[in-house]
Every structure is written in C-alpha cells, then in structure tokens.
Amino acid sequence: MKITVEQATAEGWYRPNTNGGYCMCGCGQRVPVSSKTSREDGWLKGAWKRFIRGHNARTPEQRVKMADLGRTPEARARAVERGRLTPKGSASPWWKGTPEERFAQWVGELDEDGCIPWMGYTGPYGHGWFGINKRKSVPAHRFAWELERGPIPEGHHLHHLCGNPGCIRVEHLEPMTPSEHSRLHVSQ
Predict the structure, then answer these.
(1) Could you read off the pLDDT of 138-150 as tens digits, one per residue?
(2) Residues 69 and 84: beta-carbon distance below 8 Å
(3) Phi, psi (5° rounding) for residue 55?
C-alpha cells in the first residue's frame, strides 16, 4: 500500500520539504529524492528529503537564522545582496565567485562569547566545512586562518582556545603540534 504525503503528514512522522527541493538549512544546494519510505528518518519514497546529509546538524539558533533567509522582503534583499539568492529567488550556485567571496557569505556575526560562528555546513563534531571548489572541502577555521595569517605551520593543528569548534575567529585559534593538541584535549 502506497502512503500519500497527506497520510504521512497526518500521522506526524513526515514533514515535507517546503523549500522547493533545496536543502532547508539555507545552503542553496538541491536535496535528493528519497528512494525508500522510512518512518524513523521521516522519508517518503519519491518525495524530496528535507536536508542534505549532515546539514540538519546545525544548532537550533543557526537553523532559525537560516530558516528566516528569504522569508521577509528585508531578509530576501539581504540574501540577494550577500549572494545567497538570485533576485528571482532561486538559490545561487555555491561555486560562483572566488572562494574568499563565497567564504564571506557564511561568516556569522560576533556572538556574546566573542566567537564568530560558521553559518555554513557543520560536521558531526561541530567544525565548519567550506567547499573551496567542487571537489575539495576544508575545515572553515583552517581556511579563515590561512586567509588572515597565511599557511598553517607544517605538521600543526589549530586549537580552539574558546572551546567552540564552530568558531572561525582567528584570535581564538592557536597552532599546536598534534601531540600538544591531543594532550590538551585529554586533560580537559
């Protein structure tokens, strides 16, 4: 028996993609169509998924900020100005522009802890990731460091002094050898 969108929504286990087939995190990428029905994952066969894998891992505050993108005329104008949406309202391709210009689109505003949050994709451990081109992604804090301070010393990791893995503020980062870095994290 085939389950319809209306039945699945009424049962409460399925929420449809209300973003026209684009990821609901606001990244502007197309989401895949589900190949199976899964009540646990909230997927309905033949319907768009809500998020690209991992994009729903953002904090609730980041999701609220991204969900507001394009909802009001003022928010839509800001999104067009920053290059996140085209004037007609469709998401702009993420690879347009230089990496520096695209990186700037996903930099958040200074928060109460003095951190600058990454508003793009975050991995399962909270670190932001940035696509330099169609084939290569790097941790967002490493890209921020290299933009502002140049190459990271050979064989070094960047430690978040603030303890916030989603922070890309260069003043909150310190290069360390892998042994120093792991020793520091074991002691915390």
Answers:
(1) 999 999 999 999 9
(2) yes
(3) -75, -15
Using the Cα atoms of residue 72, residue 74, residue 80 and residue 86 in order, give the sign of their dihedral.
positive
d(CA 130, CA 137) in angstroms, rounded, equals: 5
User: Once rounded to an integer, what is the mean pLDDT over residues 164-186?
Assistant: 91
What is the pLDDT of the chain when averaged over all its residues?
Answer: 79
DSSP-derived pairing of the beta strands 157-160 and 137-139: unpaired
Q: Look up the CATH number of the domain holding residue 120.
A: 3.90.75
Same structural domain, 114 and 82:
no
Cα distances from 133 to residues 86, 100, 102, in angstroms, run 20, 11, 10
For residue 33, list its beta bridge partners. Answer: 48
Q: Residue 3 domain-assigned?
A: no
Shortest CA distance to 170 belongs to which of 180, 162, 178? 162
Which domain does 100 fall in, by range? Answer: 95-188
User: Which tokens sit at 9?
Assistant: 């929504």
Q: Is 69 exposed, middle or buried (0-12, 13-18, 19+ CB in 10 A)?
A: buried
Torsion angle defined by CA atoms of residues 176, 163, 109 and 52, in that order, rounded to the nearest 10 degrees: 90
Do 101 and 143 lie in one domain? The reply is yes
C-alpha atoms less than 13 angstroms from C-alpha of 19 in its C-beta half-sphere: 26
Q: Looking at 34, 61, 93, which one is the last position of a domain?
A: 93
